[in-house]
Specification:
six-stranded mixed beta sheet, four-stranded mixed beta sheet, alpha/beta, 14% strand, Rossmann fold, 12 helices, 411 residues
Length: 411
């Protein structure tokens, strides 16, 4: 009897693992179904994805247990569903790739899946996003991702290789934790799929929207089956939440509050009969509060105030700045007219507990009804029981929810 080709055997094993994944973990299985399976050429040592397909090394697939195959499939699918290929920005590619793996793998462990040998798993980063993990990683970290994030090309040696050659492993291809096995002798030869080209900007955006739809559909099916809860459920909610720049949102508020226009009302008879435009201007009224309880760093506060000052300078807005932990800070408020720079002390006193009520109580005592109130905080504190009648924009560092108002997560 003829032995099956390595690529054919690997394809059958992957298909069986995907079927098992659909039955046991319908959310992850539905996402994995969205990735066509392609045997890869010599460039792929383990598995890889470019958000278009899942590429695999048949010999490496043959070395894994069925549970490890499920992990490998779900790992690549989550990279795509979470939009890791579209969220790197200007971050260093290699550090970003590691951060993405550190974010995904604990989720799969919590689902009961078994990681293949060499998978990057650090419980320290459980529950954190790739953006939160990235600053914790050092450039000198010599670990490497087990899979290949093929959505990016070579970025000058900062990240994964894009030259189509396997990595040279230290010590002649040792299999330590965090190192990829050599692709040499993979069994795929040059007859497998070639390394895909990096994603262009337009395709990256298109795929991101597409995977957002896949994520929503998979979550709906899993919820209907009663099999989506815990960390994955929170992850879906965050993944589907619209990501809005706080600068864009604040600019929108300021544009609405800063009212400058020309009036074409008929002048008095003493001024003649000609209709000439006259400037009618009313400065917007913005109240800004800063959480000084210690959960938001001085550097974050300084950067926020500087960017707010630059933004308000483009529009006619009177800004009242308050600092608060469990009570208003001494010296507040600081008021800046539209033509004045927004300045606060270099060091704001604080460090106590967080109570948002003093800010809203101050606004009420002053008889103010601002066009908007912006609160820069981690949202962990005591909120007023009564919702104010003016718009409130919460700029939140972290994951804490707010009971009312508009919440914008800060990276």
């Amino acid at each position: 009897m003829t032995e099956p080709a390595p690529a054919d055997d690997a394809a059958r094993r992957l298909a069986a693992a995907r079927t098992r994944l659909i039955l046991d973990h319908p959310f992850l299985g539905a996402l994995a179904l969205r990735l066509p399976l392609k045997a890869a050429g010599r460039w792929c040592a383990t598995t890889a994805t470019d958000a278009r397909a899942l590429y695999y090394n048949p010999q490496w697939i043959a070395s894994l247990k069925p549970a490890e195959l499920q992990f490998a499939l779900a790992h690549e699918a989550l990279h795509c569903a979470l939009g890791h290929f579209a969220r790197r920005g200007h971050r260093v590619q290699r550090r970003w790739d590691l951060a993405c793996d550190f974010a995904v793998n604990p989720l799969l462990l919590d689902e009961g899946l078994a990681p293949p040998p060499g998978a990057q798993v650090l419980p320290l980063y459980r529950g954190l996003s790739a953006e939160e993990i990235y600053p914790c990683l050092d450039d000198s970290l010599d670990d490497d991702t087990l899979d290949d994030h093929a959505w990016d090309g070579d970025d000058g040696g900062q990240g994964g290789r894009g030259d189509g050659e396997p990595r040279d492993e230290p010590g002649g291809g040792g299999g330590g934790a965090g190192s990829k096995p050599s692709a040499a002798g993979s069994g795929a030869g040059d007859g497998g799929a070639a390394r895909p080209p990096p994603l262009a900007a337009t395709e990256r955006e298109h795929l991101h929207r597409q995977w957002q739809r896949h994520l929503a559909a998979a979550a709906q099916r899993a919820r209907e089956a009663g099999k989506l809860a815990g960390a994955l459920a929170r992850l879906v909610d965050e993944g589907l939440a619209p990501r809005v720049s706080w600068r864009a949102a604040l600019a929108q508020y300021l544009a609405q509050t800063a009212r400058e226009d020309y009036s074409w009302l008929r002048p008095s008879r003493r001024e003649g009969d000609a209709l000439l435009p006259s400037l009618r201007s009313a400065a917007g009224d913005l109240v800004v509060a800063i959480d000084t309880s210690g959960s938001v760093s001085d550097g974050d506060i300084a950067q926020f105030v500087a960017e707010l000052d630059a933004l308000k300078g483009t529009l006619s807005v009177r800004t009242t700045l308050l600092a608060c932990d469990s009570a208003l800070a001494d010296g507040t408020p600081w008021i800046a007219e539209p033509w004045e720079p927004l300045e606060v002390p270099a060091q704001l006193a604080g460090g106590g507990g967080t109570d948002f009520r003093p800010v809203f109580d101050w606004v009420e005592r002053e008889g103010r009804r601002p066009d908007a109130l912006v609160y820069f905080t981690d949202a962990r504190g005591t909120f007023p029981a009564r919702v104010p009648e003016y718009p409130v924009l919460w700029l939140v560092k972290g994951r804490a929810p707010v009971p009312w108002g508009r919440r914008i997560a800060l990276g």
